[in-house]
Amino acid sequence: MITFLGTGLLGANFTRALLNKGEKVQVWNRSAEKAKALELYGAKAFDNVIDAVRGANRIHLTLSDDQAVDEVLEKASPGLDPGAIIIDHTTTSSPGAARRSAYWKKKGYSYIHAPVFMGPPNALEGTGVMLVSGDQRVVKLLEPELSRMTGKLLNLGEQPEKAASIKLLGNLFHISLTGGIADLITLAASLNIPTSELGTLLELLNPAVVAQGRLRKITSNTFDQPSWELSMARKDARLMIEQASSTNQSLMVAPAVAKKMDAWLAKGHAKDDWTIISKDPDA
Predict the structure, then answer these.
(1) Which of 50, 56, 86, 161 has the fewest CB atoms in 10 Å of its CB?
(2) What is the predicted pLDDT for the residue at 283?
């Protein structure tokens, strides 16, 4: 028996996918109507989280944050069967995942963190990426079942918080990328460049290759070998900010980057490679 705690968009579609594969699934959600809606697909909904976990050997969680996970698991704990495995798909803090792994192990249960790079359609279709880390004896036991839930399962090893750490890094990339794209759209509008032409620009720039190059440059610490001098990059940032301002628009990412550039310029690094801004000027 499988239990899903948290049946929002992601949890609901994970549940539906498991039901489509012939699994028996019990569900619970703080908003009871979301859990009850899944009875249409064959799930058994419970109003009480203790009842929802009874008889389940796998308890999956798709909740909001560390606090929600801790609160729900504590409330559910009287109903947990001996040896039950807790699989948490929630995006949480790295220390929180490590702490929960140790805490529930002392209580006789396995807590495995398995966050995902998946949206609701991926959960229903079994596509996207799922990360997992922790006790490898338990992970290896779960791998066949977790693999059925996703397009790619990435086992990150024994460290219980590793999956949480990599998930946060991935989400930081998404947030940073979205901020950059938002600035791109804003500046394009200021320059009367149709948004439709930005796709062609991105194909030309090949962001994946550029990102790998930036990573190599920053980690090499070879800032005294510039390909784009900081003073020139700062001039271009000024042009971007001024252009947007001229049409009463503002950029989100560029001003913050320009501020970091100014800090390095003040320390006399005008001729260094602009990627020096990745470091702390006061360190």
Answers:
(1) 50
(2) 85
24 C-beta neighbours (distance < 10 Å), count:
14
d(CA 273, CA 233): 9
List the CATH number of the domain containing 94: 3.40.50.720
Categorise residue 275: left if φ over 0, alpha if ψ from -120 to 50, beta otherwise.
alpha
Strands (E), 178-260: none
Q: Give the model confidence (pLDDT) of 59-115 as tens digits.
A: 999 999 999 999 999 999 999 999 999 999 999 999 999 999 999 999 999 999 999
* Residues ≥6 apart with Cβ < 8 Å to 14: 4, 60, 62, 89, 123, 124, 149
Tokens of 147: 């693999």
Which residue range(s) make up the domain with 37?
A: 2-158
Model-level pTM? 0.93
pLDDT tens digits, one per residue of 233-280 = 999 999 999 999 999 999 999 999 999 999 999 999 999 999 999 999
Does 156 score more than 90 pLDDT?
A: yes
Q: Rounded to whole angstroms, what are the CA distances from 87 to 2, 75, 110, 111, 228?
A: 11, 16, 8, 6, 47
Closest CA to 73 of 46, 98, 47, 52: 52
The span from the CA of 70 to the CA of 47, in Å, is 19
Q: How many structural domains are present in the chain?
A: 2
Answer yes or no: do 22 and 129 share one domain: yes
Boundary-marking domain end, from 158, 192, 213: 158
Taking residues 147-152, what's their average pLDDT? 97
Q: How far is CA 186 from CA 134, 174, 201, 210, 251, in A?
A: 43, 18, 15, 22, 7
Q: Tell me the per-residue pLDDT of 166-219, one tens digit each, with 9 for 90 and over.
A: 999 999 999 999 999 999 999 999 999 999 999 999 999 999 999 999 999 999
